[in-house]
Amino acid sequence: MKKMIKRTSALAISAFMAAQYIPFSAVAYTTTTCDLTIHPYVLNQTDYDNAKASSYVPTGKTADETNISTTLGIATAEDTTMTFNITRVTDTGAAHSDTSHNLIGVRSATDLPDGYYKITPANKTDTDARFKDAESFIIQIPVPDSGSVNRDVHIYPKFTDNNDNDNTETPGQETPTSGDKHNVTLTKTDNSSTPVAVPGAIYKLYYKDAAGKWVAGSATYTTNENGVITVTGLPLGKYYFVEQSAPTGYLLDQEPIAFTIDGATAATVSPVNDKDLTVQKTIANDGAGTVYNWVITADVPSKPENLLSYTITDTYSGLSSTAADITVSIAGMTAGTDYTVDKSTAGTIVIALTSTGIGQLTGTSFDINVSTKLAASATAATNSASINYAYAYDPTTDTDPDPDKDDIIDDANIPDPDPNDPGNSENPTPKDFPTPGGSPDPEDPYTDQVTPGTFTISNVNGEDELGGATYEVRKADGSTVVVTKPDNDDAAATNPKIAVVSNLAPGHYKIYQTAVDSGHLLNQVPIDIYVGKDGNIYSDAACTAANQIINDKGTVDTADDVANQVKFYNEPISNKFSLPFTGTTATIIFTVTGLILMAGTLFFIIILKKRDDDDEEQENN
Length: 621
Hints:
12% of the residues lie in helices and 34% in strands. With 621 residues, the protein is mostly beta strands. The protein is elongated and about 175 Å long.
């Protein structure tokens, strides 16, 4: 109903008003003939604006020519060089079945049957040739005249000079420049507002015709190597671009890009093209033991509202297909409401965002966390992620049933990618992007391959393996026990004095020795290890050198040792403590020592006594 009202209004206005300031109203009368003379004026922008702002209503008579200057204050003389094409049309603006009265390149016509006529400038050189119809207008003859009709009709259409840049030059003598006020410049940008220096974006330019309908210009425009399109010589009015083809590697966006040529400033528009959305898949280096945590990082376009669907497919091998062993989470989103997870096919997880989930997308990317367990006897885990989405201008976001947002376009003639209206031939199907994404080959799904970590733990005294110990492998913070291993836990082990750890996911771990034999000291210093994606263990987080061997001294052992072996050094108890010295030998030593001390003491007593006697005798003398 709303579209019908719009179209009816547009046709009524087209039928009773002259576009580009046409000087009369129109009323239907008895069919006969009329004469028509056209007196065009090409004005600079200032005079045009003044004329349009006046309340003067021409009558369609020859006397109006005098009033052009006296009433409107326009000093510009009639342009006697302009000619027009006169085409008979119906009351809807469509071509009339009677073509015998159509004329090309004239300024007047006689014996025209009563009805509607479209007048188009034929030789106006300051107009882009592909938009001459944008300066057309429709009249109805005859015109009313004080209760009768006027069949000798004179019209005085006003035009602007489409090369007029500063409103001061003489119409027809301006030199077009990049700043001309009848130009539009389109600059392609990406979602960071950076110009896309990639040629090949193709656009159509639409304008309103004399009947008020939106039609496409007769050409397409392609961005240059700087991502720019410039169109010059556009008549005053409203326009919009619609992208027909995006540059290679970018998303098509068919949302109308509206602009107005108002004669005040040149028009500029900067439509955004996102790059093709991609996805990457990596194993989380979080030391999760036998649980493998993967992170899928998927791109978000600058206009997520243009997404019609968004699905991530995660395929894997070497991992458990049991649904309970697979968990999926997206931060800030609720499973079932914002996204669905399909685990029904072994080896495949399909994660699809719902419309509410798409509505929550922000930023440039988002993460999907997938946790899986290693399959039994797996020697490697391979995981691939790919993306599939449909992206187009979605008219369902517009409260108006037309796909024009705020009535930029007032009927449904815009190419509309709404998939809910397949019967409309102008509605292209939204482009489906099964873009795998990722490197090195963008044509293949982004694949991440992991070899489960396998290594041995042993305890030694010097060069000798001791055995008789047990160990715990914990997460990096030491709080969670991932694996408990005693020596000789593997019946197939060639060395019964070692513990074998296998199927460990990449990450940072700490290994603790929890027991040792009675003849050695427990080593209470944990050993840090880093399990790499290649299944080897490393002494640092960089995990760059292959087959490094770790010991509890924080150094890398020589290549003579076994690769991927962790060693704890246990010192024997005898090296730390000695038993008391007991028996006959000890008794003799203590006895001799006592006698020597006693003899020494007696000797000093005798000496001191003799010294006292000598002192007394000397005193008596």
